[in-house]
């Protein structure tokens, strides 16, 4: 997915365990996760949401900084993966400030190393990075109480956290007055949401929220949100083959989060996964072998009336 954040589905790993039926999660193997994730990225066709989002964010973030320090932007990125989106945001914000302090939280060693290498190559002046190679839960536990940020991003990284409400509350609390929080998850009605809701039932401690979970959290607390939907299509060709290619197999592994999914003995779960994908391909308005989904961005602007 050329325009999708490289952090897509960066996960908290600590509670993902193999179950009694022998299924193993791709999250138990960082290298395998990245491998399957890369296949998924290459199978995505979507409208690039970045220009639209940055046009909405930039004036709000600039106003937030001007009302605080006036010269230094403090940003926090959670589940940043290889940092494609965070670097995109920084490149747009950096010309407006003397300094940009970007805090990065990412548990996957391979992905955070990719990000560090990209930062060294780009060498953006006035940008100071702070690196935290750890799950967001550990970052929360050690965070300074008085540390605040003008801009926080959590893009495609809150899918399998145990305490979603606690994490959203933490992120909102960490906003400076007039600060901006951007979160993004997929819709529960799309391919990723529907397939992802089948296999997780095999894991006793797996929680897989959608964009609806984030909206419900803020709205029930009287916190207003801006909501934007962006189309996404996944090329699922080869997934139904009797002997699928390595690439198609890795795609299925990513969609289900089950390692070697095609080798799992026939089960209700496996049958339901294939039936769901076939249904979504059949219902797609296009003639190619793609399944429809959408990304949903939720923007929260912390103001005095949103406490």
Describe this structure in words.
- The protein is of the alpha/beta class and about 300 residues long.
- It has one domain: Vaccinia Virus protein VP39 (Rossmann fold, 3-Layer(aba) Sandwich).
- Helices cover about 35% and strands about 20% of the residues.
- The protein has 10 helices and 8 strands.
- The protein has helices at about 30-40, 50-65, 85-95, 110-120, 135-140, 165-175, 190-195, 210-220, 245-255, 270-285; strands at about 45, 70-80, 100-105, 125-130, 150-155, 175-185, 225-235, 290-300.
- The protein has an 8-stranded mixed beta sheet with strand order 1-7-8-6-5-2-3-4, with helices on both faces.
- α1 (about 30-40) crosses α9 (about 245-255) and α2 packs across α3.
- It starts with about 30 loop residues before the first helix and ends in a 6-residue tail after the last strand.
- The model is unreliable at about 1-20 and about 205 (pLDDT under 50).
Strand order of the largest sheet: 1-7-8-6-5-2-3-4
Estimated structural class? alpha/beta
Q: Based on DSSP secondary structure assignment, what is the total number of beta strands?
A: 8
Low-confidence stretches: 1-20, 203-207
User: Based on CA inertia axes, which overall geometry fits?
Assistant: globular
**How does the major sheet shape up?**
8 strands, mixed
Query: Oligomer, anyone?
Result: single chain
CATH topology: Rossmann fold
> Gyration radius, to the nearest Å?
19 Å
Q: For the record, give the distance between the C-alpha atoms at the N and C termini, rounded to a whole number.
A: 36 Å
* CATH C-level: Alpha Beta
Q: What is the chain-wise order of helices and strands?
A: HEHEHEHEHEHEHHEHHE
- CATH homologous superfamily caption: Vaccinia Virus protein VP39
The tally of structural domains comes to 1
Mean pLDDT: 83
Question: Strand-residue fraction?
Answer: 15-25%
Indicate the CATH architecture.
3-Layer(aba) Sandwich
Query: So how many helices?
Result: 10
Q: How much helicity do the residues have?
A: 25-40%
């Amino acid at each position: 997915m050329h325009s999708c954040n490289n952090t897509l589905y960066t996960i908290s790993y600590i509670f993902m365990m193999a179950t009694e039926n022998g299924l193993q999660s791709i999250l138990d193997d960082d290298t395998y996760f990245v491998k399957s994730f890369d296949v998924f990225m290459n199978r995505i066709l979507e409208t690039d949401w970045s220009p639209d989002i940055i046009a909405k964010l930039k004036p709000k973030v600039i106003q937030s900084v001007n009302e605080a320090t006036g010269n230094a932007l403090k940003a926090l990125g959670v589940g940043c993966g290889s940092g494609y989106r965070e670097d995109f945001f920084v490149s747009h914000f950096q010309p407006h400030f003397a300094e940009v302090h970007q805090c990065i939280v990412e548990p996957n060693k391979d992905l955070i190393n990719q990000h560090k290498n990209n930062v060294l190559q780009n060498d953006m002046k006035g940008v100071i990075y702070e690196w935290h190679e750890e799950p967001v839960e550990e970052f929360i536990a050690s965070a300074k109480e008085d540390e605040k940020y003008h801009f926080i991003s959590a893009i495609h990284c809150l899918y399998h956290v145990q305490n979603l409400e606690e994490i959203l509350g933490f992120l909102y609390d960490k906003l400076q007055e007039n600060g901006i929080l951007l979160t993004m998850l997929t819709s529960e009605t799309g391919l990723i949401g529907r397939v992802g809701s089948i296999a997780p039932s095999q894991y006793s401690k797996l929680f897989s929220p959608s964009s609806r979970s984030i909206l419900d959290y803020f709205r029930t607390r009287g916190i207003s949100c801006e909501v934007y939907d962006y189309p996404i299509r996944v090329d699922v060709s080869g997934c139904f083959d009797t002997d699928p290619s390595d690439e198609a197999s890795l795609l299925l592994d990513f969609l289900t989060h089950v390692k070697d999914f095609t080798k799992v003995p026939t089960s209700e779960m496996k049958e339901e996964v294939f039936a769901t994908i076939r249904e979504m391909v059949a219902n797609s308005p296009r003639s190619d072998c793609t399944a429809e989904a959408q990304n949903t961005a939720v923007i929260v602007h912390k103001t005095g009336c949103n406490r």
